[in-house]
Design brief:
single chain; mainly beta; four-stranded antiparallel sheet; 10% helix
């Protein structure tokens, strides 16, 4: 089937029309106790729409910037669930600061049991130096355990400064580490074998200047789709988002397929920053969120909601549908995680708040347009 390029432009315009026909719904989403809430990750936890586990951190008042891990369990729509601040417990360590990122739940991993949670993140302790260490939290049958896991020197090839775990699903954890502060490296950790790999060190012959692995989704065929960002200054890429499929049963470059780069509004020349932070599967692809900044407004770092579909060859369509997420009244909004059509993150400016932003369903006018587009596609196929 061949489709004219202007047809894709029509499809993109109709998506934007459908989403902007009425405003995105923004609402604050914060712990009611002292300290500022930072929402970092989410995973569905039930067949009930909106019932999920949220991870994040809570600032500790008068601590000089330290944070405490926190988890929310319940409806993201009614916000009547339970917030639980957590203090990691690891033998022989006095923990000073902690944050949890992308979780997994018993709903997606039966080994965790009903209401089970696994979340990853980072922390510091009094004798552990000034950089972050990788952190894992597991709750099975009401029993909670904590553990430290850092990328080993033999994998990194040099002493490791920090390890930050960003997300987990299935048997894998993805995150970042570094051996020098001006270059980020990504890792994948296999829970079954307790082994680390460098993640995506080279793809299509390109060695990245810096790469992150932030979001992960386990597909029904046993592969995983990972989202993050990279820079490659030789190719004039300051910060672009990417999606790639990863098969943990394979080694080397054979483990990676369908690497695809994305930049905000599909405009590489206008985009300064386009970074994927969160991912969730849909019927035809993935919804994503992250951060963007453009040449037109480089001082405004904003979030986005994006949708990428799978192509006929099993890869990803080269263009995405994008919507800017801009919490009202603030110049800075981060898109940290996504659930269905809702983006969650943090916004700062005149106020500082965690938030939920829900993208509206298509309007009836746009639905008519989409129906017309479907007719065009049928005639061209």
């Amino acid at each position: 089937m061949k489709i004219a390029l202007h047809t894709f432009a029509v499809a993109s315009s109709l998506f934007l029309l459908s989403a902007t026909a009425r405003a995105i719904d923004y609402a604050p989403f914060n712990y009611s106790g002292p300290g500022d809430t930072v929402i970092t990750g989410i995973r569905g936890a039930s067949d009930v729409p909106g019932y999920a586990v949220i991870t994040g951190s809570l600032s500790i008042p008068n601590s000089g910037g330290n944070t405490q891990a926190i988890i929310y369990e319940g409806s993201i729509y009614s916000q009547n669930g339970t917030w639980t601040p957590l203090t990691p417990t690891i033998n022989g360590q006095t923990i000073t600061t902690s944050t949890l990122y992308g979780p997994n739940t018993g709903y997606y991993d039966t080994s965790l049991g009903e209401n089970g949670i696994r979340a990853v993140g980072s922390y510091k302790y009094s004798t552990g130096g000034s950089y972050d260490h990788g952190l894992m939290y597991t709750r099975i049958g009401g029993v909670s355990t904590w553990s430290q896991f850092d990328v080993p020197e033999e994998v990194a090839g040099a002493p490791v400064l920090y390890t930050i775990a960003h997300s987990t699903m299935g048997s894998l954890v993805v995150g970042n580490y570094d051996v020098q502060l001006d270059r980020g490296r990504a890792f994948v950790y296999d829970l079954n074998s307790s082994t680390f790999r460098n993640f995506l060190p080279v793809v299509q012959g390109i060695a990245f200047d810096s790469i992150t692995a932030y979001g992960i989704w386990k597909n029904s065929n046993g592969t995983y789709t990972v989202a993050g960002g990279y820079s490659n200054l030789a190719n004039h890429v300051l910060d672009a988002g990417y999606l790639v499929d990863y098969d943990p049963s394979k080694t080397g470059n054979d483990a990676y397929t369908h690497f695809t780069s994305f930049q905000y509004q599909n405009e590489p020349l206008a985009s300064l920053i386009s970074h994927f932070d969160g991912i969730v599967a849909t019927d035809d692809g993935y919804n994503l969120t992250g951060d963007h900044a453009t040449l037109a407004s480089p001082q405004n770092q904003l979030g986005f909601f994006a949708h990428v579909t799978r192509s006929e060859d099993g890869g990803f369509d080269l263009t995405a549908d994008w919507l800017s997420i801009e919490y009202p009244g603030n110049a800075i909004t981060s898109g940290n995680t996504v659930y269905a059509e809702s983006v969650l993150g943090v916004s700062t400016g005149s106020t500082t708040t965690s938030y939920i932003a829900t993208v509206p369903e298509p309007s009836s006018l746009a639905l008519l347009g989409l129906a017309g587009l479907a007719a065009i596609l049928r005639r061209r196929s």
